[in-house]
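Ticket #4471: structure export looks truncated?
Reporter: QA, pipeline team
Priority: medium

Steps to reproduce: submit the single chain below to the structure queue and open the exported record.
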Amino acid sequence: MVENSRNLIKTEGRPGRKKCALTSLKQEPGLKLAKRLGLASSPNRLFVTALTHPSYVFENPQFGRENNQRLEFLGDAILDFVIAEYLYLSYPDRPEGELTKMRAAVVNETILAIKAQEIELGHELLLGKGEQVSGGRERPSILADAWEAVIGAIYLQYGLQEARRVILELLKPSINEVAEGNYGDYKTMLQEKAQHEEKEVNYQILVEEGPDHNKCFTAGVFLQGNLMGKGMGRTKKEAEQHAARQVLEHWRRENDG
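Actual output as written to the record:
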């Protein structure tokens, strides 16, 4: 059966005539995300809370909803624990200082925001109108915080084992990169690859928005004058790193294909 966002329901009218009323089929926020994450049963209301940004609560107090900040606090602790446990068990030859550096390179705003984009978390966020207009669905800080909140919600509903599975399925590729010595300098990696292929790399800030205390930049990376990737960040450097990583991942997918 083909699913549609709208459903036709027949209603009775005068004898011999039929009318059709259009009704919207609204889906609870988080259902699609839970399916993408491979969760066995439908999520409870905690998932909605995990996807609720403070700006939405501020603009819609009548709904009486809690924002995702408390779940973010919990999810942050779970992420740290799961990654620390995995690194400890998987790399017995690495000293404590290096394990700490590896964990910091994996559990940070940049990586978490990228992983949130991979699972299309931004599409399901409940945001205030101001945040939506200013690109909140793609803002790294919002995506990373929401991703941590989702982990907190998974832990409370499904338990630590399921939270561990979701975390490691998404973050193992990043852990492997870090284990090989790549601690997130994607601009340098892209420059080296581009030089090998004799291509010129340039960066340009395409968009700058937000107040001085909360700026958001969108950077573009150009190869031979062609725009090949975009990235967002709180600083110009962070946005350029995101853009460089996007191009590197595109090249990796092409090679794998």
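Status: closed, not a bug. The export was complete when the record was re-opened. Leaving a note from the reviewer for reference: Residues 31-179 form a domain with the Ribonuclease iii, N-terminal Endonuclease Domain; Chain A fold (CATH 1.10.1520.10).
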